[in-house]
Amino acid sequence: MIFQSWRMSQREGLRADSSHFTLDGVPVQILGGSIHYFRVPRACWRDRLLKLKACGLNTLATYVPWNLHEPVKGMYRFEDQLDLEEYISLAAALDLWVILRPGPYICAELDLGGLPSWLLRDKNMKLRTTYPGFTAAVNSYFDKLIPIVTPLQFSRGGPIIAVQVENEYGSYAKDEHYLTFVKEALMSRGVTELLLTSDNRDGLKCGGVEGVLQTINLQKLSYGAIQYLADMQPQKPLLVMEYWCGWFDVWGEPHHIFSAQDMIAAVKELMDRGISFNLYMFHGGSSFGFTSGAVDFGSYKPQVNSYDYDAPLTESGDYTTKYHLLRDLLGSYQNKELPQLPAVQGRKVYEPVVFSQHMSFWESLRCTDMVFIDKHLIGILDYRTQETAVPHSERERILGLLVENCGRVNFGPALNEQRKGLVGDITLNHTPLKKFTMYSLDMTPNFINRLQSLKWKSTDEKPLYPSFFRGSMAVDGQPRDTFVKLPGWSKGVVFVNGQNLGRHWSVGPQNTLYLPASWLKSGDNQVERESPRHGGESVAEVLRAHGIRFIFTLVGGHISPVLVACEKLGIRVVDTRHEATAVFAADAVARLSGTVGVAAVTAGPGLTNTITAVKNAQMAESPVLLIGGAAATLLQGRGALQDIDQMSLFKPLCKFCTSVRRVREIVPTVRKALAIAQSGTPGPVFVEFPIDTLYPYHLVEKEVSPKNIPKGIMGKITAWYLKNHLTNLFAGAWEPRELSPLPVLIPQASDQEVQRCVELVSRAKKPVILLGSQATLPPAPVHDIRKALESLGIPCFLGGMSRGMLGRDSPLHIRQNRGDALKEADLVLLAGTVCDFRLSYGKVLSRRSQIIAVNRDRTQLLKNSDLFWKPTVAIQGDVGSFLLRLSKGLTGHRCPEEWPQSLKDKDRTKETANRAKASERTERHLNPLSVLYNVDKLMAEDSIIVTDGGDFVGTAAYIMRPRGPLSWLDPGAFGTLGVGGGFALGAKLCRPDAEVWIVYGDGSLGYSVAEFDTFTRHKTPVIALVGNDACWSQISREQVPILGSSVACVLAFTDYHIVAEGYGGKGHLIGREDEVQLGDIVKEAQRECRDGKSVLLNVLIGKSNFRDGSISV
Prior knowledge:
The chain is of the alpha/beta class. 30% of the residues lie in helices and 19% in strands. Strand 9 (213-218), helix 6 and strand 10 form a beta-alpha-beta unit. Helix 10 (535-545) packs parallel to helix 16, helix 12 (579-593) crosses helix 27 and helix 25 (928-938) crosses helix 32 (1078-1090). The two termini are 40 Å apart. Residues 534-649 form the Thiamine pyrophosphate enzyme N-terminal TPP-binding domain. Residues 21-331 form the Glycoside hydrolase 35 catalytic domain. Residues 948-1096 form the Thiamine pyrophosphate enzyme TPP-binding domain.
């Protein structure tokens, strides 16, 4: 499924140059709502954003939490629940703008305000200042974060219209240079959208920075606060960045409720005054795990896990009275009907969980301290109580302290004082105690999974508190959202399927923990060691859900599970004789079907053999997914078979490269890769699968588990490490996951840009269109584009995949004398055509011509415009969609007919000369032009022409006439030899009834002649026309006259027809003596092809001067 992104215009982003905002030059009022992706289960993102849009809002605001994205210094997480790129892309697909709030500090009631706690290991750390230790950490983080979001900016086709600099710094204000540092850190990394700050009224004075719009946070809409902001920034638009429509809760105090009527009155006033606003929160969600923070305004108060916030949507995403009142109000201001309300999500009450097993905390060997003597609780210490009595005894006893981190303060001056654990002396009768043995219970999924392998006791035995308790929850049918309630329990933490729901504490106000359906699975909810399932099945399921029909491969044990699973699900597995052919075939499928082509190859040499084909796909802008095997995760870098750094090889070639590290990552990773391949400028993506992520648990366990465990402590540590690694590898592997396609971002021209082009074209007397391969990309159907071009009546030169767009004999298709036409033209439309060597770097364009350039890729759009040409209008957008809109805007207008007619007359003159050249007799063998004219005349109307060669193919490009759109395949700008076999294979599979021709040079044939075996085995018959002149003629044509030698240019008149027969095909040798029968031989080849045989026509050709002067370098 393809979604069109927000219209792109480099100069028309969000502007704050007057009393109102403008976007695309049009006045806008921002109606925003905050939803934090990290607080909403990924499976629920779409539901929550749809509800935001259905309420009448147009903008999504979200914080970006540094502490979650870099939980350990240097270890970054942007996958699964933290896939920020996918979240923003989803907003774009739903036509929502985005205000991004990347911090580095965000507050958000998160632990340490979203700053990573590891910063505090530096004893001299000064958070939120230009202290070198802090700025260095920010720079490293932004180096990872900002490149993810910059392509999603409005100016580059994405939805991000504004980026916030820090958060509420005016309330902290410890370094006057700090905001400037953050601003420059964003801008230097490519952030170009509107920058803003956000403060409450008291913080506005110290919270600004030059060149950045200030906004205000508030709950009560006092005129004084708004006017204060207006006075600070005369003639600037007003934005309430956070209108607090509720509030957060802390443990032990009542739940906050804010009147719906008061909220509606405030929003109505904002609407009436034209003030932009963002509801904080529109939907709060949950601070799962240990992510919630604390406040300290004189006393420490930890915050609850629920971030319900009394928002218009509840913690679990349900509608409230606030929502319905807000929707009614906003709907009354809009001149179109609001989207339909998404359905209410189902809930279910499950049977109570019986805890059948327990394990004492002391046997498992964060701010409250529980004090124990000989494992028995004797007291509790906290911020208020710092002493407890120890019962007297004469004997030696063990003092134990269980230290709980209830959350670091997230706001105010105490940020630098949030180190946790034993941060000072523990004294007994005023004597400091030393030599504590410390154990860290990080309570991560790894820790919880490790507990599963330890010895548990039945609850029939009385537990020694604190303890871990284990039970099973039965889920029948499709899982539903539910809540966990623990009546009678005092305090603890709840995990389900390895997911940390958060804390339970009987003091309230939170009495339940939200358990989303996506974290449950049918059956018994507890790694499934006996499951026969494997990662290859997950790969195949995603491919099938995306409509993938073929996967091309050269088999290898690293990837066998993928191939077997694909076959079982009905995806056709096509094995080739070379890995490059597999990628070329996937490339052809991508071009002809409008989907992603998929190839899978084994590790090491299997992948290195694909590099040329992947680079060709990159330069041809073909969406191809390359699946590569790899050494097992534990063995990488240790000398395993075929283990090399594959990621470094493919990063320069692919839009997206990643290595799957856990089985549960397979589905989201492959979905993301497929979306990225098609978004923006299409191109190849690479996903590496270590072998242990693809095979079943029992087989991986057999390989990982040591046969003989060494004795001693190192042996135990090794065994524990291997078991823990295996558990983490398969944890959550088979939980249900969304398989459907992610939104695809496609940049589009703005209405203003299209209108300007309409005006330019309407005034042109001699316009010309140069159409490139991008015109054939989805979403615009090629037959609609053909109609649009015919409606415009503008003469067209067609290149690359666009050859055939106008059919075989269109009066608008000009094939010859392009340079002369460009000199005469008063307007040139570069529709996906690039000013590279093919257009002499732009030098062929007349400086008198007005030039409209349209391209999805900004670099290609403006290539060499700094040297040889200048665009009148440069549009980063989809070519096909632009042509449809241009045609619609010019309805009733048509290019003056004498102009295309004059070009066509010159075309015919050149064609006549070419035909005369074809009638000339060569010194030996057949005239190549004559051969091509004769074959072209006999080709079927549904023919697809694949070209693979140099001189002979260059001649064919002038003579052969593709019959219709998407009926011509050439390598593209890279000029790659060897594409023929793969391209033809992919073409025949896509269109099994079509007659597929490969036009080969005899040199290029050598790369893929072995694929005749593939054609035979897979019953994909094609016809190969080989121009055999026993020479690398395109090179020889220049090398011999310039350098006086034909060294390395000479081949032999090889019997290629016999080679084809050896691979199961049919072969015909055609020489001068067969000239009269050439037509009959071609017809015989066509009959043999229809009967299921691939045919090779080995045509001996002579030399012609037709291409003298053509370039080879």
